[in-house]
Amino acid sequence: MQNNTPPTTSKSFLRTFTIIHLALVAGVLVFGIMSYMLTKNQILSFTYSGDVMFYVVPFMAITGILAGNYLYKNIISGLASKNTLKEKLSGFQTASIIKYAL
Q: For residue 32, what are the domain limits?
């Protein structure tokens, strides 16, 4: 059986990378909009009201950002040993998806 996939070009790589990034951003935006619209009390307040989520949400956000950056740097540092550009681009794409998702 033949493999009929076209070779990876910079244009196709960037197009794929852009689509993945836009899909991740769109998912977050849709979730945020739907959460806002479905909430009965649509009051945005930054004062502490006794809810534990007041501390949990910022902690998890900061942890996700730090973990994403750490994993990204670890994956990128391992790409120097790869032989082909295609392997390096694939690793870069994987590292970026992990960073964006977290």
A: 9-44
